[in-house]
From TrEMBL:
Protein name, per record: Winged helix-turn-helix transcriptional regulator
Alphabetized SMART domains for the sequence: HTH_MARR
PANTHER family documented for this protein: TRANSCRIPTIONAL REGULATOR, MARR FAMILY, TRANSCRIPTIONAL REGULATORY PROTEIN
Gene3D superfamilies reported for this sequence: Winged helix-like DNA-binding domain superfamily/Winged helix DNA-binding domain (1.10.10.10)
Sequence intervals crossing the membrane: none
HTH marR-type domain span: 10-142
Domain of life: Bacteria
Length: 147
């Protein structure tokens, strides 16, 4: 059963990808609530964990928020002990933000059960199916990144 998007019936794989996106957003919101923060703060911690320290403006841009909102968010995260700010090693005028070790551990504990479950599903695929799924997911991710 396909859905519609103004132009007719969608492929079942497209519908499944949309469902995966919905499940991901709902999971992120649930984990954020469990950790006592909002989803933007949770996403900021994820970005810092995945990409390493970055400037306030860079982080705000990746989150799609204004720099002033990013500063307020970082104030909250710093008060909670989730991030720390430091002068950039190459440009002392620039402030970079990094996730703390405690926040990294808390995040790992919160996400471990779901990441393990996904990894178990991934590991259960036979090699030929793995190759097809991996290719498909890479192409879908590229399509999403390009638009």
């Amino acid at each position: 059963m396909g859905g519609t998007s103004g132009g007719g019936e969608l492929d079942q794989l497209t519908v499944a990808v949309r469902r995966l996106g919905d499940a991901s957003r709902e999971l992120n919101a649930r984990k954020a609530r469990e950790l006592g923060m909002n989803t933007t703060d949770m996403t900021a911690l994820y970005l810092l964990e995945q990409h390493g320290p970055m400037g306030v403006v860079d982080l705000a841009r990746r989150l799609g928020i204004r720099a002033a909102s990013g500063s307020a968010m970082l104030d909250r995260l710093e008060r909670a002990g989730h991030v720390h700010r430091a002068h950039d090693a190459r440009d002392r005028r620039r402030i970079t933000v990094a996730i703390t070790d405690d926040a990294r551990c808390t995040s790992a504990e919160a996400w471990h059960p779901v990441i393990s479950a996904i990894d178990e599903v991934s590991g259960s695929l036979p090699p030929d199916e793995r190759a097809a799924v991996l290719d498909y997911l890479r192409r879908v991710a590229a399509a999403m990144e390009d638009r």
